[in-house]
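Cross-check.
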Amino acid sequence: MMNSTVKENKMVSPYFLFFLMHSVQSGVLVLNFQTKIIGGAGHNAWFSVLAVGVFMHVIFLMMLYILKHSSAGDILSFHREVFGKVLGGMLNFILAIYFSIASLFPLYTYIDILQIWVFDGIASWEFSLLFSVAILYVVAGGFRVITAIAFWGVIIPSFMLFSIFYLFNYVEFSYLQPFFKHGLKDHFISAKEAAPMFAGFEAILIYFPFIKNKEKSQKWGHLGLLYTTFLYTLIALMSFLFFSAGKLEQLTWPTLTMIKIIQFPFLERFEFIFIFTWLLVIMPVICIYLWSAIRCIKFTIPRIKPTYLLICLVAIFHFVNSELLDIEYYRILEDIIIYSGLSFLFGYVPLIFLISVVRNKLGKSS
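Predicted model, tokenized:
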């Protein structure tokens, strides 16, 4: 059973798990996932998004079972207990690499969006330096500060949902018909493209010891997944009502293109507000992933000081965002994130779950 060694003054209340779960799933993929999922089930792909969201609750239950049967309540101690110090340490390092790359991707993409849509004359290294300092400050503050950023990263951008009422004036309901045109194979293709959007909540395997009253917090985790599913399904549905299939396939950033038509007498470029607000969305993703990577390494090699490790990782971030600007680097980074995330969620987590079940049964028998 879980016996957390985290001091209570470093822990957060159970309801914050809702914000931690949802915030880390709301990254830059929200801005362009429609173009990818339409290739399978077409305008009915929102069914696939809904199905993937429901299945993520099963993955979450697997994670909770693993955490429940870990001595310290995280996967790091589980690795050491099951695989030994050497192999368990190697697995923890692999997790650290995964979380590090996953934290880099949102910032890399967000800088690209800023240069395309807003500040085309500002160099990448200037954006990178500014954001790197902010990330360094937040992560150095500890898990409670990151949780606060996650809280506001959900609350403030949620007001952007009211823009959907404006877009209802331009929807075309005939785009969704017929409803059952595509088969299971087509929906599976769309589901495969939609699955990476839900990645991110696997970080709970690292930070769960920092949650108070863990049994009560589980419902907040499910609510976080439910809200993510609702949000993605709503955005997909609105996009399919707004764009024809041919138009949507040609767009790079469908969400921003859709938001661009919103105009007010006192504000002509509403998408600027949307883009700037999106910084609050990606900051929790970056900080939670980066904090998780540092904790993985710190757990494996206790002598390493987290502050030095944080500075080193942020310096690498700055280098990548300043020097590796070619589109090929973006595609390589995106493929690494997508395939490693899918492998972790649908491969490694079920495997560790089965090992945990067998280990628990054998322990009871003995």
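The mean pLDDT is 86. The chain has one domain: 15-357. Passed to J.P. for a second look.
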